[in-house]
Amino acid sequence: MTRIALFPGSFDPFTKGHYDIVIRGLKLFDEIIVAIGQNTMKQRYFPLELMIEKINETFRDHEQIRVITYNELTATFVKKYNARFLLRGLRNTTDFEYENSIAQVNKYLNAELESVFLITSPEFAAINSSVIREVHRYEGDINVFLPYNLY
Ligand code: ADP
Q1: pTM of the model
Q2: How far is CA 88 from the centre of its chain?
Q3: Catalytic position from the list 16, 66, 91, 133
Protein backbone atom coordinates (compact mmCIF):
# COMPACT_ATOMS: atom_id res chain seq x y z
CA MET A 1 0.00 0.00 0.00
CA THR A 2 1.32 3.41 -0.96
CA ARG A 3 2.32 5.44 2.07
CA ILE A 4 0.96 8.91 1.62
CA ALA A 5 1.63 11.68 4.14
CA LEU A 6 0.11 15.12 4.33
CA PHE A 7 2.46 17.87 5.56
CA PRO A 8 0.04 20.58 6.69
CA GLY A 9 1.00 24.10 7.64
CA SER A 10 0.65 27.79 6.93
CA PHE A 11 4.01 27.95 5.16
CA ASP A 12 4.01 31.75 5.33
CA PRO A 13 6.71 31.40 4.05
CA PHE A 14 7.91 27.84 3.32
CA THR A 15 11.41 27.70 4.84
CA LYS A 16 14.56 25.58 4.79
CA GLY A 17 13.26 23.99 8.01
CA HIS A 18 10.10 22.83 6.21
CA TYR A 19 12.18 21.68 3.24
CA ASP A 20 14.36 19.56 5.51
CA ILE A 21 11.31 17.84 7.05
CA VAL A 22 9.85 17.03 3.60
CA ILE A 23 13.11 15.65 2.17
CA ARG A 24 13.74 13.51 5.26
CA GLY A 25 10.09 12.41 5.15
CA LEU A 26 10.77 10.80 1.76
CA LYS A 27 12.67 8.05 3.61
CA LEU A 28 9.39 7.15 5.32
CA PHE A 29 6.71 7.90 2.74
CA ASP A 30 6.10 7.20 -0.95
CA GLU A 31 4.28 10.49 -1.44
CA ILE A 32 4.22 13.72 0.50
CA ILE A 33 1.55 16.34 -0.02
CA VAL A 34 2.52 19.78 1.21
CA ALA A 35 -0.88 21.18 2.21
CA ILE A 36 -1.20 24.91 2.73
CA GLY A 37 -4.09 25.55 5.09
CA GLN A 38 -6.18 28.54 4.17
CA ASN A 39 -7.32 29.85 7.48
CA THR A 40 -10.02 32.44 6.82
CA MET A 41 -9.32 34.04 10.22
CA LYS A 42 -5.61 34.47 9.54
CA GLN A 43 -4.47 36.95 6.92
CA ARG A 44 -1.39 35.71 5.02
CA TYR A 45 1.73 37.81 4.63
CA PHE A 46 3.14 36.08 1.54
CA PRO A 47 0.52 35.54 -1.19
CA LEU A 48 -0.76 31.99 -1.50
CA GLU A 49 -0.13 31.88 -5.26
CA LEU A 50 3.50 32.93 -4.78
CA MET A 51 4.08 30.22 -2.17
CA ILE A 52 2.48 27.51 -4.34
CA GLU A 53 4.74 28.55 -7.21
CA LYS A 54 7.89 28.57 -5.05
CA ILE A 55 7.16 25.20 -3.39
CA ASN A 56 6.48 23.65 -6.82
CA GLU A 57 9.71 25.13 -8.13
CA THR A 58 11.64 23.80 -5.10
CA PHE A 59 10.42 20.23 -5.60
CA ARG A 60 10.23 20.19 -9.40
CA ASP A 61 12.66 17.22 -9.53
CA HIS A 62 10.67 15.20 -6.99
CA GLU A 63 7.56 13.68 -8.47
CA GLN A 64 6.63 12.17 -5.05
CA ILE A 65 6.05 15.67 -3.65
CA ARG A 66 3.23 18.01 -4.53
CA VAL A 67 1.57 21.07 -3.10
CA ILE A 68 -2.12 21.75 -2.57
CA THR A 69 -4.22 24.22 -0.61
CA TYR A 70 -7.18 23.36 1.59
CA ASN A 71 -9.82 24.96 3.70
CA GLU A 72 -11.14 22.07 5.79
CA LEU A 73 -10.55 20.10 8.94
CA THR A 74 -7.14 18.44 8.41
CA ALA A 75 -8.03 15.19 10.21
CA THR A 76 -10.85 14.35 7.81
CA PHE A 77 -9.53 16.17 4.73
CA VAL A 78 -6.65 13.63 4.50
CA LYS A 79 -9.15 10.96 3.38
CA LYS A 80 -9.61 12.71 0.03
CA TYR A 81 -5.95 11.98 -0.71
CA ASN A 82 -5.85 8.54 0.94
CA ALA A 83 -3.23 9.93 3.30
CA ARG A 84 -2.86 7.85 6.46
CA PHE A 85 -0.08 9.96 7.94
CA LEU A 86 0.36 13.54 9.04
CA LEU A 87 3.93 14.75 8.92
CA ARG A 88 5.01 17.52 11.31
CA GLY A 89 8.28 19.01 12.49
CA LEU A 90 9.33 19.52 16.10
CA ARG A 91 11.79 22.25 17.04
CA ASN A 92 11.39 22.60 20.78
CA THR A 93 9.09 22.04 23.74
CA THR A 94 6.75 24.80 22.59
CA ASP A 95 6.19 22.92 19.33
CA PHE A 96 5.78 19.73 21.33
CA GLU A 97 3.04 21.14 23.59
CA TYR A 98 1.13 22.45 20.60
CA GLU A 99 1.62 19.37 18.42
CA ASN A 100 0.73 17.04 21.26
CA SER A 101 -2.72 18.57 21.72
CA ILE A 102 -3.40 18.77 17.98
CA ALA A 103 -2.36 15.13 17.54
CA GLN A 104 -4.70 14.02 20.34
CA VAL A 105 -7.64 15.86 18.80
CA ASN A 106 -6.80 14.55 15.33
CA LYS A 107 -6.71 11.00 16.68
CA TYR A 108 -10.15 11.51 18.16
CA LEU A 109 -11.48 12.88 14.85
CA ASN A 110 -9.84 10.22 12.69
CA ALA A 111 -8.56 7.10 14.49
CA GLU A 112 -6.89 5.76 11.31
CA LEU A 113 -4.61 8.75 10.99
CA GLU A 114 -1.12 8.59 12.50
CA SER A 115 0.85 11.75 13.21
CA VAL A 116 4.57 11.38 12.58
CA PHE A 117 7.06 13.89 13.97
CA LEU A 118 10.57 14.55 12.82
CA ILE A 119 12.93 16.46 15.09
CA THR A 120 14.34 19.46 13.28
CA SER A 121 17.94 19.37 12.07
CA PRO A 122 19.94 21.64 14.42
CA GLU A 123 21.00 24.05 11.66
CA PHE A 124 17.34 24.83 10.94
CA ALA A 125 15.99 24.79 14.50
CA ALA A 126 15.98 28.57 14.81
CA ILE A 127 14.15 29.13 11.54
CA ASN A 128 10.72 30.45 12.25
CA SER A 129 8.22 31.78 9.68
CA SER A 130 6.99 34.64 11.86
CA VAL A 131 10.52 35.94 12.48
CA ILE A 132 11.21 35.72 8.74
CA ARG A 133 8.08 37.80 8.05
CA GLU A 134 9.32 40.40 10.52
CA VAL A 135 12.75 40.57 8.84
CA HIS A 136 11.07 40.92 5.45
CA ARG A 137 8.72 43.64 6.68
CA TYR A 138 11.76 45.75 7.55
CA GLU A 139 13.39 44.95 4.21
CA GLY A 140 15.98 42.49 5.51
CA ASP A 141 17.22 39.79 3.14
CA ILE A 142 15.43 36.54 3.96
CA ASN A 143 16.68 34.38 1.07
CA VAL A 144 19.21 32.66 3.35
CA PHE A 145 16.29 31.07 5.25
CA LEU A 146 14.47 29.85 2.15
CA PRO A 147 15.15 26.87 -0.16
CA TYR A 148 14.31 29.07 -3.22
CA ASN A 149 14.89 32.67 -4.23
CA LEU A 150 11.96 34.85 -3.33
CA TYR A 151 12.42 37.41 -6.09
P1 ADP B 1 1.47 25.89 11.49
O2 ADP B 1 0.78 27.20 11.33
O3 ADP B 1 0.59 24.71 11.23
O4 ADP B 1 2.31 25.73 12.72
P5 ADP B 1 3.92 26.20 9.99
O6 ADP B 1 3.98 26.54 8.54
O7 ADP B 1 4.45 27.22 10.94
O8 ADP B 1 2.41 25.86 10.25
O9 ADP B 1 4.67 24.84 10.27
C10 ADP B 1 4.32 23.62 9.68
C11 ADP B 1 5.07 22.48 10.35
O12 ADP B 1 6.47 22.65 10.16
C13 ADP B 1 4.88 22.40 11.87
O14 ADP B 1 4.90 21.04 12.26
C15 ADP B 1 6.09 23.11 12.41
O16 ADP B 1 6.41 22.66 13.72
C17 ADP B 1 7.13 22.67 11.40
N18 ADP B 1 8.28 23.60 11.33
C19 ADP B 1 8.25 24.94 11.22
N20 ADP B 1 9.49 25.45 11.17
C21 ADP B 1 10.35 24.40 11.25
C22 ADP B 1 11.77 24.26 11.29
N23 ADP B 1 12.58 25.32 11.23
N24 ADP B 1 12.28 23.01 11.40
C25 ADP B 1 11.46 21.94 11.47
N26 ADP B 1 10.12 22.00 11.46
C27 ADP B 1 9.56 23.20 11.35
Answers
A1: 0.96
A2: 7
A3: 91
